Amino acid sequence: MKAKQQSIKCVVWDLDNTVWDGILLEDREVVLRPQVVEILKTLDERGILHSIASRNDYDLAMAKLQEFGIADYFLYPQIHWNPKSASVAQVAQDINIGLDTLAFIDDQPFEREEVAFTYAQVLCIDSMQLDGLLERPEFNPRFITEDSRLRRQMYMADIRRNREEEQYVGATEEFLATLGMVFTIHPAREEDLKRAEELTVRTNQLNTTGYTYSYEELDELSRSPRHRLLISQLEDRHGTYGKIGLTLIEQDPEVWTIKLLLMSCRVMSKGVGMVMIHHLARLAQEAGVKLRAEFVSTDRNRQMLITYKFAGFKEVDRNGEVMIMENNYSAIQPTPPYVTLITD
Amino acid sequence: MDERQLKIKEFLSRFFKNHDLQAHEDIFALGFVNSLLAMQLVAFVEKEFGIRVEDEDLDLDNFRSIQAISDLVVKKSGAAAPVAQA
Question: What CATH class has B3-80?
């Protein structure tokens, strides 16, 4: 385990005199800055997302971004006249990431100060000083996995899903049934380990212990006969969510202990965390062993505690910060009909 | 059902459509209680009734039925109320 390193997950861009030279409302012939295009492309390939916080006319600005061929890079663009601190917060909420993983780039000192004053945890950068940005450690994830390269497309699919979900009038469960979800669980193989490390570093909200593991530690755990390291993946008719879950179980003769269970925040509303836990409970029950889970409360992971408790876990012991819970198997539920579970 | 129970019933009915949920009916027996329902239910109870569900209250049995949730709310709001003058 190692200390959490702060890495940027999304860059929020101003437009006038930042993405392009000139002010769009005064001059329709603004000039795109080549350096910005290079940064957009490079960070996108690294799995870092982009958004916009601009005080501008929405239709005009979007048309200009289309014309420049860069509109698709930006998720949840905030183009209106509200304070930029509000825009930045909205982006964090829509993407479902922490404010401390955002960078904000603007040419106006006033705007940077307004954001920094409201949210000190946002990294504010002067758009006239972009040289060397690509080399900064915050913009260099340790690994670039298949999931990071596809991240923007996966978020785009999320936006389509959410739009459909908002328009759906039936019960949540009926909506989930329309998605045709396939949830796959398999032992982590060597090619999964980079993604596994990335998941432990990136995931805060849906992490039951907050432990992070390095590639080397995960490699060792995946080979250890005492441990079972599982990767889970979710797909639906909109496409794949990628590898979104990691579970580490320590297997002793009488007791299995879930040391770590995490899910990407992108699948929070799909309810698959519970599917995973019930699956583990069935496996442990069939193996004739007790199933325990470790849990460490952080300020963000309460949902995971709720998930464990609603799956029938009860606290049986406490070791400092670590709560130890046990499942008595009285509340095991089969996989819901709207999810196809594949295991190997 | 009293007003509190009706509010809880109304909330749960969003998840169990076309089912007339009874006060003592076990929601875990009705269908899969997923993480989303669990989270929204706890958030609903806290916001609607102005109580704080502590970690130790997060017991399956406290959320099993309309009656159980209602009992939890009564217990929590009673405990949170100022101590009566002797």
Answer: mainly alpha
